[in-house]
Each structure stands twice: as structure tokens, then as C-alpha cells.
């Protein structure tokens, strides 16, 4: 399982890659493995305003539908439309081709509420021990 060090992570299993004032967001390798084969992804529209921790779409796997929760507040600048035809990108390449949205961050201070890779790796290992 991968935990890229340059990313920030939420307790809801989203990753954030900061690129200046922009934040690329996706679900973690751990999350895609827990969900199983992704069959569809519902994402917001470009221009939508997201608030941290609010639902912004859903992801469907064979046995479940999971809500997507914004790890940061901001305006949606880009949506990964490729996932409409190839939702398996989330499983195959969650940190590159499987990205979900790009936000213009409303409050970069919210990044301080997210975890570094080592903290997230510990977080998911504790979750696995509890299962």
C-alpha cells in the first residue's frame, strides 16, 4: 500500500496534493482497496463551491456506494471527466490518473488539519487492527 510523503491525508481517506493555491484531491490507495472494484464516480461541476467535510459526490463499488467528503474548502476548478468512462483509474492509479477534483483553496490553513503520510499510515494500521 502506498502513502506518498508529499501528500496530506484526511481521516475520511482522501489525499491532497498542493500545487500553489490549488489542491488536487483523490481517494487513497487504502480507500480504493477497501471499496473494491470501482464501477462509477459522481463528481461536482466546475465552479461549485465546496466546504470542508461536506459531501461533494459519490463513488460506487460492487457492494457499496460511498459519499465523497471535501478535505478542504474551495472552488472546483477541474473535474476528472476521464473517470466517467474509466472509473477503474481510481483502483489502478489512485494518486495520478485516479484524481477526482482540483480546487482553488479557500483557506490554506485547513491543510493544518490534515495528516502527514506517516500519521495517516499509522491511522489506517490502527483501523485495520480494530477490524
TrEMBL record:
The glycine cleavage system is composed of four proteins: P, T, L and H. Residues 22-104 form the Lipoyl-binding domain. The glycine cleavage system catalyzes the degradation of glycine. The H protein shuttles the methylamine group of glycine from the P protein to the T protein. SUPFAM superfamilies: Single hybrid motif. Keywords: Lipoyl. One of its GO terms (cellular component) is glycine cleavage complex. The modification N6-lipoyllysine is found at residue 63. This is Glycine cleavage system H protein. Its cofactor is (R)-lipoate. HAMAP family: GcvH. InterPro entries: 2-oxoA_DH_lipoyl-BS, Biotin_lipoyl, GCV_H, GCV_H/Fam206, GCV_H_sub, Single_hybrid_motif. One of its GO terms (biological process) is protein lipoylation. Belongs to the GcvH family. Binds 1 lipoyl cofactor covalently. PROSITE patterns: BIOTINYL_LIPOYL, LIPOYL.
Amino acid at each position: 500500500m502506498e502513502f506518498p510523503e508529499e501528500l496530506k491525508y484526511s481521516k475520511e481517506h482522501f489525499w491532497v496534493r498542493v500545487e500553489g493555491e490549488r489542491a488536487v484531491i483523490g481517494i487513497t490507495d487504502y480507500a480504493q482497496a477497501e471499496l473494491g472494484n470501482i464501477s462509477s464516480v459522481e463528481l461536482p461541476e466546475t465552479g461549485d463551491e465546496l466546504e470542508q467535510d461536506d459531501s461533494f459526490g459519490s463513488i460506487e463499488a460492487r457492494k457499496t456506494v460511498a459519499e465523497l467528503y471535501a478535505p478542504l474548502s474551495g472552488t472546483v476548478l477541474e473535474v476528472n471527466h476521464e473517470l466517467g468512462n474509466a472509473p477503474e483509474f481510481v483502483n489502478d492509479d489512485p494518486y495520478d490518473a485516479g484524481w477526482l477534483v482540483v480546487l482553488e483553496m479557500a483557506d490554506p490553513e485547513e491543510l493544518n488539519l490534515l495528516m502527514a503520510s506517516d500519521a495517516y499510515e499509522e491511522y489506517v494500521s490502527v483501523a485495520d487492527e480494530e477490524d
